[in-house]
Amino acid sequence: MLIRDAEIFGGKRCDVRIEGARIAEIGELRARPRESVIEAFGGALLSGLHDHHIHLAALAAQNSSVQCGSPQVTNADALARALQVPGTGWLRAIGFHESVLDDALPDAAILDRIVPDRPLRLQHRTGRMWLLNSRALEELLAIAAPPPGLERSGSGFTGRLFDEDAWLQRALGSLPPDFREVSAELTRFGVTGVTDMSPRNDPVIARHFAQQRAEGTLLQSPVLAGGLTLVEAEQAGWHLGPLKMHLHEAALPDFEEALGFIAAGHAQRRAVAVHCVTEVELVFTLALLECAGSMPGDRIEHVSVASPELVKRMAALGLQACVQPHFIAERGDRYLADVEPRLHPDLYRLRTLREAGIPMAGGSDAPYGSADPWQAMAAAVSRCTLSGSHIGPDEALTPEEALALYLADPLDLSRVRRISAGEPADFCLLGLPWSEARSRLSCADVAATICAGRLVYQRVDQTPFERLARADAAP
Ligand SMILES: [Zn+2]
Q: How does residue 471 score in pLDDT terms, banded at 50, 70 and 90?
C-alpha cells in the first residue's frame, strides 16, 4: 500500500510505502502495478494514536447500558425517567452521581420505588460502586454468598456494593463482551493501540483479547495491565503491561501488604501503575515507592491532585504519568465545586509534570471519560470546563505536546513513536495539514486510520480514497 503526498508529522510532504504490517520506505515513491494507493493530498500523517488507559470490556458493556449520568440525567425525575425501560431481566445502568439525588447515595428501598419489578444495578460514575435494588440483591444472594464489599445495615444489606466487580461477574456468570463495536468506534478517532488498565485483568480476559485479535474483531493492538496472574497467560495477540494497583482513599490497603504487592510485580519485571485521584492516594503511593524502590516504567494513573512538592517527589523516583485532560472539560465544574479551593491549582497539572521531566501519556479512562482523544487534547490546551471556567490555565500544553501524549510508546512512555522505515504501519491520517488541525484538535479531521498496514477506517464523504494504481504504474 502506498500513502501518497502525506505531510509526515514534524517533517515534509512525501509518500509512505507499507509492506505487511510495517513501514517499508518513505520518500518520493512511484506506485507499483496493482498497489493500493491512499491519496493524502497533503494531510498530516501521524503515528496511530495510543490510548494509554482504557477499560475496553466496560466500554463495550456501556453500549448495552442505560445512561444515568450528566448531562442527560441531573435530577431525581430525570433519573426515574431514564430507568423506565421496557423489558424484563437485568437492567444495567451507569454514570450515576449522588448530586442527582441531593448528594445522597440511594439504598435498595429507594431504588425499588423507581424500578420495583426487575433487578437493577446502577453503577456510580467512578466505576467503583454498584447500587442494587431489592430484586437484584435477592437474585445475586440466591446464587452467591455476600462479599465483604456489600454494605450491611442493621437489618440486612443496603444494596451498595463497593469494588466487587469480580464477585458480580462470577455471580452473573457474565462472559467478556465482544469488542467489535468499540474497536470500530476507536478507529474513528485514529486510535490504533490501547492499554487496558482494568485491575482485574487475568488469564481469562487475556485469552478473550487474544481471540478477539485473532478474529479481527479487535483492530487495535492491545497492551494489558492487570493482576499478578496475567503473566501466566502471556501469548500472541497482546503485550504484557504493568501491574495495576487500585487505591481507594477511604480504604487504603495495609502498607506492608501493598509493599509486598509492588515487590511481587517488580519481581515479574513489571512496572506498577497506581491509581491516584486524590492527594492522599498520591502521598500513600509515593511513600510506598520510596520504601519499595521504583523501577523504570512505574507510573501514576490520573495524577488528579498533585502539589509541586509531590511532583518533585514523583520525578525523583523516576515515575511516569498517565493523564486524562478531558476530565477538566467533563468534570471540571463539579471539581471546582467539590474540591477544596486550596487544591484547585493542583488539579490535573500537565505543564508542571512536563517541566519536572516526567514522561507523560494520555488515556481516556473510557467508559469513565470520553474515548475521543481529540477532546482530551483540546482540553489539555484550553484547560476549559463545560461552563467556560478555567482550571489551572498555566498548566496548559501546546497542541504538539498534547498530541505527544498519544504518540508515546505504550511499552516505554519516555519514547515517542515516529514515522520511519521499519516501524509498525499504524497511522492516523488527517484531512488537512497539521498547521490547520492544531487549532481545532477535532476527531472530525481524522480522514483515515490504518492498523498494522490495513485501512480500517476512512471518512466517507471526503478525501482520502483508496484505489488501485493501474493508471500511473510504471509500464
Ligand atoms: Zn481507569
A: very low
**In this structure, are 371 and 261 located in the same domain?**
yes
Alpha helix stretches (DSSP H) within 18-146? 56-62, 76-82, 108-114, 134-143
Distance from the CA of 243 to the center of ligand 1, in angstroms?
13
Q: What is the percentage of the chain residues whose pLDDT exceeds 90?
A: 85
Same domain, 438 and 453: yes
Please report which residue ranges of 35-179 form alpha helices under DSSP H.
56-62, 76-82, 108-114, 134-143, 165-172
How would residue 19 be classed by pLDDT, with cut points 50, 70 and 90? Answer: very high
pTM of the model: 0.85
| Ion ligand 1: residue ranges with CB closer than 5 A | 197, 365
| Å from CA of 102 to ligand 1 middle | 26
Please tell me whether residues 103 and 238 are part of one structural domain.
no
Q: Say yes or no: 71 and 162 in one domain.
A: yes
Please give the residue range of the domain that contains residue 459.
1-41+433-475
User: Which of 172, 189, 218 is the C-terminal boundary of a domain?
Assistant: 172
Going by their DSSP bridges, the two strands 446-451 and 427-430 should be labelled as antiparallel
pLDDT bracket for residue 11 (50, 70, 90) = confident
